[in-house]
């Protein structure tokens, strides 16, 4: 005997789940790339000081040259979970934050590639005699480019959430302690079976039980 085929979800629901999956993957990939790039070298800095001080060289990582890169990476990883957990206006807010984080990542990577990093907060001029020094920056293109790609992915993910997120499903409701889904109505009680007529065997058993209790079955 063949079993009936399971119900097929509506096309809109299937499309929404696919779009939600794509947005979550884009957020996670963008955040992972940003965190990876933040710990890698972004620029080689050479400081030429006045004689007799020798020149110094320093390698700046992404977190030193652009501190917001690591913060944006963490935000994007958290957004990958938040997109699933929230719905409605909350999901739109998450999408906007994702797009902003992607824009910051892309801008940071682009500035590093063009040699326009602000090294004021990178602590390259804290040595003795560096007030009259000449600082030369040689960008390392690989990891700023990775940050730029991560930014583009983040902007795409944020735009997808903002434009399409209202139609996506949310996190499923958990079952209550009684084992019944939340919001479900109680099953109707089964009707009691009609009592069958008493037989001689039933009367004999009832008499023996009465004797065991110390009652007189003939009373």
UniProtKB/TrEMBL annotation:
Keyword Signal: no
Lineage: Bacteria, Bacillati, Actinomycetota, Actinomycetes, Geodermatophilales
Name of protein: Trp biosynthesis associated, transmembrane protein, Oprn/Chp
Compositional bias ranges of the Low complexity kind: 178-192
Provenance organism: Modestobacter caceresii
Domain of life: Bacteria
Biased composition (Basic and acidic residues): 195-219
Region (Disordered): 172-219
Chain segments annotated as transmembrane: 63-86, 93-110, 141-163
């Amino acid at each position: 005997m063949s079993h009936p085929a399971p119900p097929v979800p509506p096309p809109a629901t299937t499309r929404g789940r696919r779009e939600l999956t794509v947005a979550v993957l884009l957020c996670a990939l963008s955040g992972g790339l940003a965190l990876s790039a933040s710990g890698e070298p972004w620029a080689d800095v050479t400081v030429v000081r006045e004689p007799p001080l020798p020149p110094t060289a320093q390698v700046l990582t992404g977190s030193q040259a652009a501190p917001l890169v690591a913060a944006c990476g963490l935000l994007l990883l958290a957004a990958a979970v938040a997109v699933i957990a929230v719905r409605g206006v909350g999901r739109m807010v998450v999408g906007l934050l994702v797009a902003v984080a992607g824009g910051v990542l892309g801008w940071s990577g682009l500035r590093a590639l063009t040699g326009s990093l602000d090294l004021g907060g990178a602590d390259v001029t804290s040595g003795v005699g560096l007030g009259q020094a000449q600082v030369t920056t040689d960008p390392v293109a690989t990891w700023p480019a990775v940050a730029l790609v991560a930014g583009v992915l983040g902007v795409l993910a944020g735009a997808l959430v903002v434009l399409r997120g209202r139609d996506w499903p949310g996190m499923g409701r958990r079952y209550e302690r009684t084992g019944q889904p939340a919001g479900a109505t109680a099953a109707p009680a089964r009707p009691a079976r009609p009592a069958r007529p008493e037989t001689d065997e039933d009367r004999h058993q009832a008499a023996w039980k009465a004797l065991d209790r110390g009652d007189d079955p003939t009373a």
